[in-house]
Amino acid sequence: MSDDSEASHIAKLYSDFYAVVRRIPEGRVLTYGQLAELAGRPGAARAAGAALRCLPAGLGLPWQRVIGKKSRGQGRVSIHDPIGGAIQRQLLEEEGVCFSESGGVRLEDFGWIPE
C-alpha cells in the first residue's frame, strides 16, 4: 500500500469513527468496542482509541462520551493521564453520567444504543 493510499485509508477510518461520536447524545456513553462496531469496524476498538487520541482541535466532537470497558455491563474512564481522565470524568458528570465508587459507569443506565 502506498503512503497516499494508507493515509487515505486511515483518514476514512477515522472519519467513520468521528461520524458515530458526533451522534452520541449528551448523558450517554459508548465503549471503544461499541464505537468500532457502530462505525462498521468490529474488532477495531484500539483504532477507535487512536482516532480519538489524535482528534483534530476544533471539530467539537463529544470525545468524552467514549469510555473503556471495565467489565460486563460496566464502562470506565480509560485515559491513563490523570489530568485527562479527570477532565473526561468531570465532563461526563456535568452531563449527568454517574460513576460508582470504583469508577464504573453502568452501561444499562448510561449506554447509548442508536435506533
Main sheet?
Answer: 4 strands, mixed
List the domain count as a whole number: 1
Strand order of the largest sheet: 1-2-3-4
Shape category? globular
The helix tally amounts to 5
Low-confidence stretches: none
- Rg on CA atoms, Å: 14 Å
CATH C-level class: Mainly Alpha
In round numbers, the mean pLDDT is 93
End-to-end gap: 37 Å
The oligomerization state is single chain
Second CATH tier, the architecture: Orthogonal Bundle
Q: What is the CATH third-level topology name? A: Arc Repressor Mutant, subunit A
Topology record:
Blueprint: H1 3-23, E1 30-31, H2 32-38, H3 45-53, E2 66-71, E3 74-76, H4 82-94, E4 104-106, H5 107-110
Parallel strand pairs: 1-2
Antiparallel strand pairs: 2-3, 3-4
Helix pairs in contact: 1-3, 2-3
Question: Can you put this structure into words, describing what you see?
Answer:
The protein has helices at residues 3-23, 32-38, 45-53, 82-94, 107-110; strands at 30-31, 66-71, 74-76, 104-106. It is an alpha+beta fold and 115 residues long. It has a single domain (3-110), classed as Winged helix-like DNA-binding domain superfamily/Winged helix DNA-binding domain (Arc Repressor Mutant, subunit A, Orthogonal Bundle). A four-stranded mixed sheet has the order 1-2-3-4. Strand 2 and strand 3 form a beta hairpin. Helix 1 (3-23) packs across helix 3 (45-53) and helix 2 packs across helix 3 (45-53). The longest helix is centred in the N-terminal third of the chain and has 21 residues, at 3-23. The termini are far apart. 26% of the residues are buried.
